[in-house]
Amino acid sequence: MSDSKKLGILTVGMGAVSTTLYAGVEAARRGLTPGIGSLTQMGQLPLLAPPGTPTQAIRELLDLAPLEDLVFGGWDLIEKDAYGAAKRAGVLSPADLKKHAKFLRDIRAMSGVADPRFTTRLEATQLKREMGKRAQVDALRADIRAFREANDCDRLVVISCMSVEIYQPPQPVHASLAAFEQGLDADDPAISPSQLYAYAVLSEGVPFINGTPNTIVETTAMHQLAVRSGVPLAGSDFKSGQTYMKTVIAGALRMRLLGLTGWFSTNILGNRDGLVLEDPAAFEAKRVSKTTVLDDICSAEEQPALYSDIEHLVKINFFGPRGDAKESWDSIDLFGWMGYEMQLKVNFQCRDSILAAPLALDLVLLTDLAARRGDKGVLAWLAFYFKTPAKGGQKDPGNNPAVQLGILERAMRRLARR
Question: What is the C-alpha to C-alpha distance for residues 142 and 200, in angstroms, rounded to an integer?
Fold first, then answer.
């Protein structure tokens, strides 16, 4: 038996987020940059504490996989390797691309599975030859086993950074694992490519993380499969930029018991994600994940006088020249003492993948640790990282980041003791 300690990280999709994750980890390993934005690399426990409170570095407290042990791979529908994908994404500077060129070129992309009914704006050129959903699952499982063997990995984690599919809530085929497996054999059209990846990964006994709004973690079938396979499942949709700021501001307004009448959010971006979201059916998946956070934090049920009549609109526009450097605007209409009206304006000029990559790193390291500690099924305590955190039959963690951070800290302390 191999005594390797390598942790293989497979990404579904080698787009902007995935390649920025790869390059950032390599830069940290070479001592070129600290892990900015990553709790596992720079965080201290307690996460929230008064000034002067003694703290301890998270990476000293938890038995996390060292960055030196990480090995990367993944699937992509267009590019042959991570260098070509990173160059196409346009996130990394020419200087950084040059520094990490050999490392990125060595990360070869495996061909993927796609269905034009679910991603109408994506022209896939690197597809599995297998026809039929069961055969495609078998091909993906073979990829996972081959990657593990070729890279002498002790463990694997898969994180989905793929393009957004059209919005589809759970269907009858997702109601149980038995129904889903029957659907695979019958080529049920309600089974999406993202679900094929998740099924293949979990069936191989590998933890799966959904960084997209695609309907995966929300299904009973995947919950049951994760438990049956004895591995963790986490998601959904990275909470990295505009929506993270929305939860912070909404939480602050809620704490002060200030009322809301309207919240208009819009942004422009020019990456592949923005192109895919031009399809209204795909945008609906993102709209749902972006709007639910406000409904939860500013609950009309709990405070009807403050939040019973909020008009909440979300828009996303593809604008090619902007690339991955997304710009967002939020116009917030609120009211305070004696009902007097006020407004708050937020303009966030961010970089989507620079914000999401450290979240992806935290998620794979924490999920791997949870798997080694014997956790299985939905990891609801990772809610801090997601727009639509999975519950999996557990108590709803909600969307308030301060509450989520407390839940995350308690989970970290539990993992440290085991």
Answer: 9
Residue spans of beta strands (DSSP E) within 282-405: 311-318, 327-335, 341-349, 377-378
pLDDT of residue 1: 32
Cα–Cα distance, 8 to 197 (Å, whole number): 16
Instruction: Count CB-CB contacts under 10 A for residue 298.
Output: 24
The CA distance from 102 to 161, in Å, is 23
Could you give the angle at which helices 16-29 and 352-372 cross, rounded to 10 degrees? 70
Separation of alpha carbons 281 and 372, rounded Å? 38
Element (H, E) at 367: helix 352-372
Backbone angles phi, psi at 45, to 5 degrees: -105, 135
pLDDT in tens, 24-38: 999 999 999 999 999
Pairwise CA distance, residues 184 & 189, whole Å: 9
**Which residues are CB-contacts of 50 (< 8 A; sequence separation ≥ 6)?**
none
What's the pTM value of the predicted model, to 2 decimals? 0.94
DSSP codes, 324-335: T--EEEEEEEEE
- Pinpoint the alpha helices (H) of 151-264: 177-185, 193-203, 220-229, 242-255
Residue 260: CA atoms inside 13 Å, Cβ hemisphere, count? 27
Q: Are 234 and 382 in contact (CB under 8 A)?
A: yes
pLDDT, tens digit, 9 for 90 and up, residues 251-307: 999 999 999 999 999 999 888 878 888 888 888 888 888 888 899 899 999 999 999
Cα 209 to Cα 150, 168, 267, 349, 379: the distances in Å are 23, 19, 26, 27, 10
Q: How far apart are CA 373 and CA 392, in angstroms?
A: 19
Name the strands in the sheet holding 311-318, side by side, starting at the edge strand that comes first in the sequence: 311-318, 259-269, 327-335, 341-349
38: which DSSP letter? -
Instruction: Count the neighbouring beta carbons within 10 Å of the beta carbon of residue 345.
Output: 8
Residue 268 is which amino acid?
I
In angstroms, rounded to a whole number, what is the distance separating the alpha carbons of residues 210 and 228?
A: 19
